[in-house]
Amino acid sequence: MTTKNYVIGLDIGTTSAKAVLFERNGLVVAENENAYPVYHPNPSWVEQDPYEIEQAAIAAISGTIEKSGINKNEIICVGISSAMHSLICMNNQHEPISPSITWADGRSATQANHIKETVGERIYLKTGTPIHPMSPLSKLMWMKETNYQPYLKAAKFISIKEFLIYRWFDQYIVDYAIASASGFFNIHTFEWEEEALALVGITKEQLSEPVPPTTICQGLTSTLAEKFQLPDDLPFVIGSSDGPLANMGIGAIEPGDVAITIGTSGAIRQMTSKPQTDSLQEVFCYGVTKELWIMGGPTNNGGIVFQWLKNVLGEVEIQQAFDSGGNAYDLLTTLAQNVNPGSEGLLFLPFLNGERAPYWDADARGSYIGLTLTHQKPHMIRAGLEGVIYSLFSIGETLERLAGKPVNLFASGGFARSSLWLQILSDIFGQEIQVPVSHQSSAWGAAWFGLYALNEVPSLAAIKDSIPMNQTYKPNSVNHNTYSELYKVYRELYSSLKPHFSTLASIQRNV
């Protein structure tokens, strides 16, 4: 009998599917990532092809197994993580009749504002999902009001994760966290919220069945199993959304444990033993299990800011990287490292893609403030990186009001590869930052949920003993004082510029 020593975490992200093969102790054996395109058929529309995502997910798993060289029969299970807020219309033949509309889609800004001004507070207090174009609630309102044909013909409304589960296991089920992120799931009763459904004109029969994250799916067809390079009876555990799984995979589980993640977007999150919302509507609160919720706030603007900086300011570095086989991001980071903390008084509001927490304003716009003739490209690069962390710090202030002061800070996501960005994080927050060896925390959290569902580990909290840690970053007190002084200015800029953001956004929409 083959001993089973490995577990796979499958992470369906915003721009790629990643599969990571772990040992039981959290050490990474192999990983594979497959990207998929994002389509923009109209301004502010952000769509993907569900079938392209499915193919990328299958290729991610098969590629990981090929890289590892292990016997597929040594794998215990696959746990699934997924980005939130996607929406697909399905017909009676179980085929997608719309693209997958992602969290970044802004077409429903008008509808979101109307909901916010009318019944938004009441719905938010029940669902824990801030009213914003990111949520399927607002997307469905747009579909209803514009007579969007796929909406009118839809038999089901599902997320990309539900699409994959249906394709692979012929079931319409959804984990609590993905359901929570819809904007029409009650985090107190763990049932679909009738008032929200009535608002957008759908019924609970058009939605999947909400299930615990430990739900096991089994029975791949022989054709699918061959594509995955997996046994056809291998258990897939439905898992959760990428946010709570990132907390889980980094060990941020107890009160006072705060996880900060930056990938394409970013977030700061904390687990809690009861749902907490208030009328200010500044943070999300999603159900994970019936005993565990996650609170926090997402920013639209994480790694995508650095990508924009590279594309706009990094022409030379892109060419140098191409010529030498290096990395343009590393070259730009080296430039930024030579600038003093605070970028000599230059601030950057990183709202290139609108903003979610704590403002929930799709009209917010990016801005450099304080430019002088002495500022050069390296200052602009560093100010951009600092601006992303200022944004997360502002969300952290709101989270602290509801969940208490953070005790332990953990960092994960692609930005955790950058020692400069991590040091900026430590200096702005004024706290030590703990970083795991693997930055694939959502995948490890998904894998651990799989182990837990199959009784291979004693508890969710036991993951703390199976997270190989890399290093810690300690704050520099001088740098922290500099950042604290600049943050006082940063904090006031959004409210000062908000009226102008709205005007500019209106002009841009009409261009």
From TrEMBL:
Signal peptide region: none
Q: Which Gene3D superfamilies match?
A: 3.30.420.40
One annotated GO molecular function:
kinase activity
SUPFAM superfamilies hit by this protein: Actin-like ATPase domain (SSF53067)
Q: Does the keyword Acetylation apply?
A: no
Instruction: Provide this UniProt record's keywords sorted from A to Z.
Output: Kinase, Transferase
Q: Where is the Carbohydrate kinase FGGY N-terminal domain?
A: 6-249
Q: Does the keyword Translocase apply?
A: no
Q: Which GO terms describe its biological process?
A: carbohydrate metabolic process
Xref: Pfam families: FGGY_C, FGGY_N
The record places domain Carbohydrate kinase FGGY C-terminal at 259-453
Q: Which family does it belong to?
A: Belongs to the FGGY kinase family.
Q: Could you tell me what this protein is called?
A: Gluconate kinase
State the species of origin: Halalkalibacter suaedae
From the broadest rank down, the organism's phylogenetic lineage runs: Bacteria, Bacillati, Bacillota, Bacilli, Bacillales
